[in-house]
């Protein structure tokens, strides 16, 4: 009897473990039909399939395959192995050619040509899904709505009904997230702008805040970089700015961000209450310009 292992994965932390249970159950049914003895299960939860990096269980499975612990890998669908066509085809090729490990799909034809077509389709689907999400967020940002993540120091997020009265499929009004002033933090931000406009240095502003025991963004103490971040952040003008950076996933699975040119940014003025009005913002801007020249 052939020895095999099951590999299961889902990509979003918003999905439930039921997805894994379904995948494993289908794989076990397949193994029973093919008389494959299941030796172990490898499960990566909330891990993307667009790269092999960062998937610890997948890496552990490959290490065991190289050592000859099993002869087959069974996955619910080929795209559970990966959604990068190049990476996945290479891994399957190496497993089958160099280590004698056969890769099966429990629910799809186990034919190399069909497999490659399905993997190509999966990669294209992932690309299109990402593009649709980007288009949706761009549209939301263009209307002044928040597209995710924690609000900057000085603001809180609140929900408001869609201005046009749009509803979801159940007839309920669609809610959007916008910024509102944080009752305790917004006055601190305003004070930073006012003091800098009065000629007080960033370093001295940070020192004063720390001496008064005021907690900095992130829960630590204030330093020059924290003050500088606030003084250069156009969110405090009441502007919604989105698409400043592009998310890049490195081969090890970790994310990094690359800055986009300003002409690609989505900028909406008067999207939320300003902490620094135009007069104060411009006064601070002139002081920064003068200091940068020397």
List keywords for this structure.
elongated, two-stranded antiparallel sheet, about 290 residues, 10 strands, four-stranded parallel β-sheet, alpha/beta, single chain, about 20% strand
Strands ordered across the widest β-sheet: 2-1-3-4
Instruction: Detail the poorly predicted runs.
Output: none
Question: What structural class results from the helix and strand content?
Answer: alpha/beta
Strand content: 15-25%
Largest sheet: 4 strands, parallel
Shape: elongated
Average pLDDT for all residues: 87
Could you give the count of β-strands?
Answer: 10
Counting DSSP H or I runs of 4 or more residues, the number of helices is 9
How helical, in percent, are the residues? 40-55%
N-C termini distance: 78 Å
Radius of gyration: 26 Å
Order of helices and strands: EHEHEHHEHEEHHHEEEEH
In short:
This protein is 42% helix and 19% strand. It has 294 residues and is of the alpha/beta class.
Characterise this structure.
The structure is a single chain. By secondary structure, this protein is of the alpha/beta class. Helices cover 42% and strands 19% of the residues. The protein contains nine helices and ten strands. It has helices at 18-34, 56-66, 78-81, 85-98, 112-142, 185-197, 202-211, 224-231, 278-292; strands at residues 2-10, 36-45, 72-75, 102-105, 155-161, 175-181, 240-242, 245-249, 255-259, 266-268. The protein has a four-stranded parallel sheet with strand order 2-1-3-4, sandwiched between helices. α6 packs across α9. The longest helix is centred in the middle third of the chain and has 31 residues, at 112-142. The chain is elongated. The N and C termini lie far apart (78 Å). The mean pLDDT is 87.
